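Narrative summary of target 7.
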Amino acid sequence: MTTATRAPILPVYRAGLIAWALLVVLQLVWHAWLVPPQHMPMPLLLAITVVPLLLPLFALRDVRRALLWVGILSLFYFCHGVAEAWSSAGERWLAITEVVLTVLLIAALGAGVKRKPRGGDAA
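Modeled conformation, tokenized:
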């Protein structure tokens, strides 16, 4: 019986995973507890805000791929956070938290990219 060896998760990817988890928790706390919806059923709102963040769990075997998908999805949450911070004073701190988490997530993706060394080009 052999066991597959896994490469350790880089610290920068751990920061991305933590930002991803906190973004999910923020959506749940924000929309289900602190500011419940008034004109929309809560299950529908949670389906719109939380379920997309859970879809990359299917790719979690490859942490980089899962974080890539979450990074792509987080652009929507970044736009949502900016719009809410601009328009809703009561929810501004939640929106700024959302923006900070999405920026941290995207920064973790950028910091984890392996760059190819330049060839013999010394221009």
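Residues 63-87 form the longest helix (25 residues).
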